[in-house]
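Problem 12. The chain below contains 247 residues. Write out its predicted structure in token notation.
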Amino acid sequence: MITKKAILAAMLAAPAALAIAAPAHAQVAGIAYANPTSVVASSKAFGAANQQISTTYKAAFDQMQQRRTALDNELKPLVAQLDSNKDGKVSEEEAKAAQTAKNPAIEKIRTAQTNAQNDLGRLSNPAARAELFAIESVLRQYEAAQLRVVNARKISVVLSPEVFMYAPDSANISQAITAEIDKVAPTVSIQPPADWQPSRETLAIQQQIAQAAQIQAYQQAAQQRAAAPGTAPAAAGTQPPKPAEPR
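Solution.
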């Protein structure tokens, strides 16, 4: 079951998935790299913002969980119509057969899913917008914080991590930039102006944080299944459970 805690745990867990340890003297021959996504996700302001979002939009998150439960209940009898051998799951062959036969349950399933996605989007939009505003507010501090680190450590060039084929941990100054941001902006607002629109960079960082959290949630679930005593291995051809959605 996906709960509000699971939804926002993705946001709060992201720094652990993204942060790369770096010693205090983080540069190599005047060349360093930094990851803005890691900086934002690891910042005190982002963590505080998500705690505030969790409280402010609790009712909306509860409604989202209720809507997911309603969708599950709506889909169960429809999916059962596609399960021709009644083994409790729909195989690829059964799905193809239903499509060939133009089983009306397929279109009903698509309609139910579309309606649910529209409802979930409407309910999640205010919280997602609040998170985007918090991300962008942290990013406004990024350039100045990076400059302070560059000057203090006499760094000549700062590149993105993707440029490097190899670099030691000491080349990463992400944590140092985060520390500088934490000094001047330990908190940020989650209330954007009515006419505010997020930048492309802000949208990209939010997506990267969500993806990292999904991966971490999936890995943790896999580890828990592996550690559980008496857990049977997954049957061939079956797919692992989908990781918790970040929002």
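Discussion. The two ends are 14 Å apart (CA to CA). Students who got a different answer should revisit the alignment rule from Section 12.3.
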